[in-house]
Write a structure and sequence with these properties.
Blueprint (H helix, E strand, L loop, with lengths): L1 E2 L2 H10 L7 E7 L3 E7 L6 E8 L5 H15 L1 E8 L8 H15 L7 E6 L3 H9 L6 H33 L1
Parallel strand pairs: 1-6, 2-5, 5-6
Antiparallel strand pairs: 2-3, 3-4
Pfam families: RuvX
GO molecular function, one term: hydrolase activity
Protein name: YqgF/RNase H-like domain-containing protein
Length: 170
């Protein structure tokens, strides 16, 4: 896995041959779970996909799951939620970096690019939307993790598509 700057990841995607273009996967990395969202074929809309259990002991299995998704969904990169609004040494920021480092060490995702995107209260926003529904805690947590990943990926897609559009009009 290789880190690239947010705009560069999308520019590389747009420059690719139409047959080589792929989708992006949004990740909301938490202590126990990783919420997963996927972009549409044209990388304009994010949709919820799943929630994966996160344990140090299952990182190889998670990498294998990601490998399956790469081929199944034609994935070319990860957009990883990162708490930019906080100091770098916070536990949330450290756990995101450790997760990406652990995934990279498996060597199962070679050639895949990733970038970090500000998760900016995505979980809190989803929590506020779900609260009036009075869902059971387990169901609420699963939905929250998935839609936090959607918020991260959609925020990224909106930004890069706006930037791409403004570059074309200038």
């Amino acid at each position: 896995m290789r880190y690239v700057k947010p705009l560069n990841l999308f520019q590389d995607l747009v420059k690719a041959n139409t047959l080589e273009r792929g989708r992006l996967l949004g990740l909301d990395v938490g202590d126990k779970y990783v919420g997963v969202a996927v972009s549409g074929l044209h990388n304009k809309i994010a949709s919820p996909l799943s929630v994966l259990l996160r344990k140090k002991s299952n990182i190889g299995l998670m990498a294998a799951d990601f490998q399956s998704l790469i081929s199944e969904l034609s994935l070319v990169g990860f957009i990883v939620g990162y708490p930019f609004d906080r100091q770098k040494g916070t536990p949330d920021a450290v756990q995101v970096k450790l997760f990406i480092d652990d995934l990279s060490k498996t060597r199962k995702l070679e050639g895949l690019k990733y970038t970090y995107w500000d998760e900016g209260f995505t979980s809190k926003n989803v929590e506020l939307l779900l609260k009036p529904l009075n869902l059971p805690p387990v169901q609420s947590k699963t939905i929250m993790d998935k839609f936090a990943a959607v918020g991260i990926l959609q925020g990224y897609l909106d930004y890069v598509n706006r930037e791409l559009k403004s570059d074309v009009t200038q």
